[in-house]
Design brief:
single chain; 561 residues; mainly alpha; two-stranded antiparallel sheet; 3% strand; globular
Length: 561
């Protein structure tokens, strides 16, 4: 099933090259529709309430292993848990939307454009479906090439510089991540005598490393994943890449490519380096909070509406990283929800900006504004998706932002070793953050409301402003066409559905998130906090288990693997 989701776009990409250029967009659309049909069938077959095993090596569905080079442990291995499956579904959903969004925008080199768009979808799906390290890294790295081509050939006036900066930043970070993963493979072989590239086995082995070893591995992993998020201060490539990319490139970039970074942190950094993550969660959280506020203030002074939305991604994904390092149910679940919700609302904003640009050939708020008078349908969608991005209660953005902040607030050492599996979240939970982190990060929501509402006031409301030299697109009506409305309606429906009733998605996340947190707590406890007044080498304190008044030694021992 998962291999089909990867192979279908690749097969249709080949057909794009074989068919005449005039058929390229139609073939690409069929390719994405076939992929989304397979994804829907997979979602129906997927057992969303299946309990995930806590050893990170089982509990994945649609598992398939094709031995490629057994002597070196190389194989094509795929599988999905609920987290991966939700992101695969998001990738499949954005496929036909991106093709339809490019229907009239791309008039030259159509075969090249749609070929690389389909290839990009295939390899992004491969990242989320991979259960083999080589396959993961190949897919993770190969996503650079299609987007580089899309930006450099089909972007705006400064596209070459944007594509080069994007490639250099992300490629350099990925090389350092590769070094960390290779070290994990070597460590596993040295300690177990088994040469393996299976992600589950490598995770189990890496969690037994010393704090110092985990610290270096965590740094290497973050070198690649933090650039992809992007996390402050390695974020400077994103606004330029977003601004210069074609509309579909921006949608894919915001919708799923940035999530490769946050997914990498969740899938690799948390379980492979649990002790180091607990030890260094505070500086990571500080960088995330700086990104939330700093990028928000930059948004406030932008005049290019696309660059404003691009910088808002840096701010929004700071909440995503903050929720991950909170290390509790609310924070990690909210972060995963944010991966999905940000892809829906911000992807829709880039679509709307692209529709405006097709008509006016400018993104400057000084040249165009007051469009509600001329494009009321466009303005309605613009207000709706901006409110979703602001975090208006009842829409999807509110749920994920609130959960990330709630998890950050509850995360603290006061309740470090309370049982998480006994049901619900009551008071303080295991984690390294606390109320002060949530309070400072919460100001980012206020800043977001300021710059996004300021953008609405300029672009949507007020007197109509149009460039003097603009020429109407011969194919497009003044307001949105039926094709453009059809692109936006599914995203709007999901924004409302996930905002009003997120329970089904949150329930599917309970098992994998709970086991991930338990894994971090269990494997961090012996080595993560040796500095907190630990005593005799053989006692409970020496194992890093902090006993509160009334707890027994037997209860504390339950924290060990």
């Amino acid at each position: 099933m998962l291999l089909l989701l990867m192979l279908a776009p690749l097969a249709f990409a080949g057909l794009v090259l074989m068919r005449p250029a005039s058929h390229a967009r139609t073939v690409a659309l069929w390719g994405t529709l076939v992929a989304i049909a397979i994804a829907i069938f997979a979602a129906v077959q997927f057992q969303w309430d299946w309990a995930i095993e806590s050893d990170h090596s089982s509990g994945f569905q649609f598992e398939y292993v094709l031995e490629w080079f057994p002597a070196l442990g190389l194989s094509v291995s795929v599988g999905a848990d609920p987290v991966a499956m939700l992101l695969i579904l998001l990738t499949a959903l954005l496929g036909p939307i991106c093709v339809l969004a490019s229907w009239t925008a791309i008039e030259e080199r159509q075969k090249t454009y749609f070929f690389w768009l389909l290839v990009l979808q295939a390899f992004v799906t491969g990242v989320f479906a991979s259960r083999d390290l080589v396959m993961f890294y190949v897919c993770f790295e190969f996503t650079l090439l299609p987007l580089y081509v899309l930006i450099s050939l089909f972007g705006s006036s400064n596209r070459k510089a944007a594509a080069t900066k994007f490639f250099l930043y992300t490629f350099t970070g990925s090389i350092l991540t590769l070094a960390g993963l290779v070290y994990v493979v070597w460590f596993t072989q040295q300690t177990t005598g088994v040469w393996t590239l299976d992600i589950g086995r490598l995770t189990a082995s890496a969690a037994t490393m010393s704090l110092s070893q985990q610290g270096w591995v965590l740094l290497a992993l973050l070198a690649g994943f933090a650039v992809k998020v992007p996390l402050f201060p390695v974020h400077t490539w994103l606004p330029l890449a977003h601004t210069e990319a074609p509309t579909a490139g921006s949608v894919v970039l915001a919708g799923v490519l940035l999530k490769l970074g946050t997914y990498g942190i969740y899938r690799f950094a948390l379980p492979m380096a649990p002790a180091a993550l607990v030890e260094y969660a505070v500086p990571i959280a500080v960088l995330a909070i700086i990104g939330i506020i700093y990028a928000g203030l930059i948004c406030w002074v932008q005049t290019d509406v696309k660059k404003l939305v691009a910088y808002s991604s840096v701010s929004h994904l700071g909440f995503c990283v903050l929720g991950l390092v909170a290390l509790n149910m609310a924070g990690v679940s909210g972060s995963i929800m944010y991966m999905i919700n940000h892809g829906l609302s911000t992807g829709a904003l880039f679509l709307l900006i692209g529709m405006m640009y097709e008509r006016y050939h400018t993104r400057s708020m000084k040249e165009v504004g007051g469009l509600a008078a001329k494009m009321p349908v466009w303005a309605t969608f613009m207000v709706f998706f901006t409110m979703a991005s602001v975090g208006l209660p009842g829409l999807n953005g509110f749920v994920s932002e609130f959960m990330c902040l709630l998890g950050t607030f509850q995360s603290g050492r006061d309740g470090a070793w309370r049982e998480l599996a006994s049901g619900g979240i009551v008071g303080a939970t295991y984690g390294p953050l606390g109320p002060w982190f949530a309070a400072v990060a919460g100001t980012g929501m206020i800043v977001a409301a300021m710059y996004l509402l300021y953008m609405l006031g300029k672009v949507v409301f007020g007197p109509l402003r149009e460039p003097d030299d603009h020429h109407a697109h011969p194919v497009l009506p003044t307001d949105l066409s039926a094709r453009e409305i059809g692109i936006l309606l599914p995203l709007a429906a999901l924004c409302v559905g996930l905002g009003v009733y997120p329970t089904p998605v949150l329930k599917t996340l309970e098992s994998p998130v709970r086991n991930t947190i338990a894994w971090v707590e269990r494997h961090a406890s012996p080595v993560a906090m040796p500095h907190e007044g630990l005593a005799s080498e053989g006692g409970d304190e020496a194992r890093g288990v902090v006993l509160s008044e009334g707890e027994t030694s037997e209860h504390a021992k339950g924290a060990r693997p």
